[in-house]
Each structure stands twice: as C-alpha cells, then as structure tokens.
Amino acid sequence: MPPVIKSRIDRNDPQYVANREAMLASLDDIAELTGRVTAGGGKEDPEKSAATVARHRKRGKLLPRERIRLLLDENSPFLELSTLAGWGSDDPLGGGMVTGIGWVHGVEVMVVANDPTVKGGSQGPTSGRKGLRAMEIARNNRLPLINFTESGGADLPKQADIFVPGGASFKNLTQLSAAGIPTITLVFGSSTAGGAYVPGMSDYVVMQKEAAKVFLGGPPLVKMAIDEDADEETLGGAEMHARTSGLADYLAIDEPDAMRIGRDIIKHLNWRKAGIGPTQTPKPPRYDPEELLGIASSDIRVPFEAREVIARIVDGSEFEEFKALYGTTLVTGWATLNGFPIGILANNGILFSEEAEKAAQFIQLCNRSQTPILFMQNITGFMVGTRYEQGGIIKDGAKLINAVSNSTVPHLTLMMGASYGAGNYGMSGRAYDPRFIFTWPNHRIAVMGPKQLAGVMTIVARSKIEGAGGEWNSETEAMIAPMRDELEQQVERESTALFATGRVWDDGIIDPRDTRTALALALSACHSAPIRGVGASNPDALAAGVGGSGADGGHFGVFRM
C-alpha cells in the first residue's frame, strides 16, 4: 500500500483562517453569478429575466436544465461545464447554452442545450466557443452527443463574430458521426437557417409535435425570396418532417415524450466504454475536503504545500511519490482517484532544470503505463538569471514542453493558484489540449504577474529613453508612472479566474471542496475512450507477435540533451 500523506494543517493558523475567509467570499460571488445563469432569462435585471422565464413557462415549455434532468438517469450526477462563459463580455452570462456530462441508462453522454429564454436561444460568440468546446470533449473522450435545439439561429448583430468560426459546429457533427460517436438531436422549437443543419447532420432526430420548426428560410424569407406564402407548419413543422421530408426520425407528443425517446435511443445503442474501469476500490481521503478552503493562498504570491491538496482528493490520501528528493519544487507520483489510477504533477514552487527533467521523465513513465495525468498548477514560471541560463534552463524546459505536447494519455489540469508564463505551458495549460481543465476561484493566469510585467515595462521604457540620448530622472519616471500603473491594473483585471472562464479558457470554476468529485467524473468520462500512451505496449501487436511500439504510433519529439 502506498504511503499516506501526513497532513500538517493547523485550522487555527491565522494564514489558514484568512485564506478560508477569502475563498468563501469568492465562492459567494461565484454562487451569485451561477444563480443568475441557472434562473434563465439572460437579463441583467432579475425582474426582466423572471418575466422572460414566466412567458416561456406559459407556453408549456421547460427550462433547459429541467429538460436535462428528465433525460438523465434518476439521481445521477451532471457535470456542468463553462457555466459562467461570457463573463466580462457583452454576451449573455452563460452564453445562452448549457453543456455538460451526464448519465443515460448508465452511458456517459455530452449534452448541449440551447436556453430559449436567453435571446430566443440565438447563438453569439460565447455560445459558439462553448458549443465547440463541448464537441471537442465529446470527440476526445468518445461520448455520444445529445443536442437540445430551440434557437433563433445566429445572433444577427454579432454575425461577423459568429458566422465563420460557427461553421465548425457542422463539420464537427459530421466528424463525430464518421468516428462512430452517435449524435442525437431533440428539437423543441425553432431551428432555422444554419441551425436547421444541426438536425440535418445528426444520426438521430426527434421533433416535438406542434412545437419544432425546422427550415432553412422561414415564411418571411420565403416570401421575400420567391414570393411564396407559406405557414410555419407546412414549411417546417415537426409532423411535416416526420411524414413528408423524412428529416424527423421520431415524432414526440410533448417534451417528456421526447426525453423518453432520447433515452430509448441511447439504450438501443448498446454503447460500451473502450477504456478500462476503475482498477481499485475507491476510498475517501483521510482528511476533510473542507480544509481545502484554507490551504490555497488568498495572496497568489504566497506559496502553499501541494501535498496538502493531494491528500484531500486522492483515495485514502495514499501517494507513491516519485523522485521525492530531486527537483523538490515539483511533486510527482502515483495515486488512485475514485479507483482510477493517475499520475500527478503538482507545483510546489518555481520550475528549475531539475524539475523540468523530472517532469519529462515522469510523463514518459505515465505514457508507458497508460496512466492518465493530473497537472496541479500553482506556478510563476521557469527560473531566470545568468546561472540558470548557462545551466540550460531553456533546453530543460523544452524537454518538459516536448513531453507534455506529445503525451497521448488523458491530461486533466487543476488551476489551484498562479499560472504564469511558460509554466502554464509546461503544466498542460489550455493550449496543450487537456481533456478537462478546472479552476479554483483564487486562480490567476497571465504571461507574468501584474507587478513584474509593469516593472519590466518601466525598465524597457528607461532603456529606450537613455538609448535615445535622454536622461532618466524623477520627471521622466513620473511621466511613465501612470502608464505603468494602468498596465498593472489591466493585467490584474485580465488574469482573474472569472476573466479566464468567461473566455472558455477552462471548463469551469469549481468549489475546492468539489475537486475530487469533478475530477472523478472527468476521469470516468476519459475512460469512455481507449487510454493509449506513447511507447506503451500494444496488446494487439504483441498477440500477433509484432512487438510493442507505441499503442497509437505516437512518438515524443527529439529531447535536447
């Protein structure tokens, strides 16, 4: 049995108490924003949102999350993703769309649901990014995709921002189908113009009688284009598509009936996971997850012990640490989480050459053993300075980024603190395609810290002035100061967890106490697809006497030695 991590948390420590209070305050803000999204309506004014929702209900319609509940297995979890997408933009908070992973007849599925109470379900830039991310997760993890469609199409005032990138949604639908991943669309209302191709490109289509309307051009456009008078039902009603055009495969009487049909479709697929299930019996951590609230520093510049976090999320708080005495500012090792084996890389300080080499070796080992990797980020970057440049920090850091870039086992990333500079890249940040990426409210992400960035700007300005023959004095420093301060404030605003999640740089801000649950659900979803590592033995090839090359033919790039 792996050793149990010994916790040294003191709940009475002033720093712990301050961290906990700051985290709870941030969680209150997140809860208020989340409440606005889940209530529906999409308006800044709660009364106007409530009125919009009331009109929707008066038509006998359910809200998207109510539809999802009817679809999913009773009392099963739903891992909602990108809940606060659009924060800080002029798009509706949440993007007018719900995405997430749930269980239907025991099968994990990706659900993408338009929220018709938000701008009639029309699609803007945020909903476009959110929907594309959901499809990416479905493809990478081999999850059947279920669309709940009720949308007015593109948000026309923002057509320039949605039209070109939005076309990828149709491409992705057909590629999912080509990959053998089922796509199912349930239509509850309008699905017009480009939106009509969503059912048109799905494997299965369910339309609700007297509610679904699917056409490339509605009656007004038909009148303008060919001077034909047509009513909605004849032009694109559910019954017409079920009886005449053949676009509808199933005709549902009402919303609950549509959910029943959707569930039946999933059941008859006989879908099976391609990855292995849990290999160990799940065990709860030995320490209270409530303590996670006080572990992460409220001041991002203050370090905290990564092992204390690991101890509260892995099974039995058991952790087999790898190279514990080498490269000590990076913690690496093996554990299980809800019975699934994982390799863990967790920052305990800045990255030096030793840490980079240790990480690259560990990632190779995880690929050989076909073990998913959890990256736990609290990193200000790689070490700089003459000593470290001469010592090869660039080539050593490149080894780590090479390993992360070409690793083929699933990566999960937890942003539990800072994520600055190339440290973000080396620890599998968003650009490196982790299967899932979750953040805590205290998370900060930028090219570097605000004060450091503003300081660099001051040094560059001084060099420029002196290089042009000028003099750096109190007067020139006072002239630069407002720009420096403005830049520092800008970086501070643009590095918050809310700013990042608003742009779909992650899959959602989570309560630290929910970390184990979110990661367990994500790990389970990852195992819907085969787990294949670079350099791992290929069982099929071995059985045929061929030998053990990479399970998927992948390779790491050249490691500069």
Strand content: 15-25%
Largest sheet: 8 strands, mixed
Q: Regions with pLDDT < 50 over 5+ consecutive residues?
A: 540-551
Please report the distance between the alpha carbons of the first and last residues: 36 Å
SS content category: alpha/beta
Oligomer: single chain
Spatial shape: globular
Q: What is the number of beta strands?
A: 15
Brief write-up:
The chain has helices at 14-39, 46-58, 64-71, 125-141, 159-166, 168-178, 197-200, 219-226, 232-236, 238-245, 255-268, 292-295, 306-310, 353-368, 386-390, 393-406, 422-426, 450-467, 474-493, 497-502, 515-526, 539-543; strands at 78-81, 97-104, 107-114, 145-151, 183-192, 204-208, 213-215, 250-252, 320-322, 330-337, 340-347, 373-379, 411-420, 436-439, 444-446. It is of the alpha/beta class and 561 residues long.
Can you describe this structure?
By secondary structure, this protein is α/β, with parallel strands linked by helices. The protein has helices spanning 14-39, 46-58, 64-71, 125-141, 159-166, 168-178, 197-200, 219-226, 232-236, 238-245, 255-268, 292-295, 306-310, 353-368, 386-390, 393-406, 422-426, 450-467, 474-493, 497-502, 515-526, 539-543, and strands at 78-81, 97-104, 107-114, 145-151, 183-192, 204-208, 213-215, 250-252, 320-322, 330-337, 340-347, 373-379, 411-420, 436-439, 444-446. It contains 22 helices and 15 strands. Strand 10 and strand 11 form a beta hairpin.
Task: Break the fold down into its secondary structure elements and pairings.
Layout lengths: L13 H26 L6 H13 L5 H8 L6 E4 L15 E8 L2 E8 L10 H17 L3 E7 L7 H8 L1 H11 L4 E10 L4 H4 L3 E5 L4 E3 L3 H8 L5 H5 L1 H8 L4 E3 L2 H14 L23 H4 L10 H5 L9 E3 L7 E8 L2 E8 L5 H16 L4 E7 L6 H5 L2 H14 L4 E10 L1 H5 L9 E4 L4 E3 L3 H18 L6 H20 L3 H6 L12 H12 L12 H5 L18
Parallel strand pairs: 3-4, 4-5, 5-6, 5-7, 6-8, 11-12, 12-13, 13-14, 13-15
Antiparallel strand pairs: 1-2, 2-3, 9-10, 10-11
Helix pairs in contact: 3-11, 4-5, 4-6, 14-16, 18-19
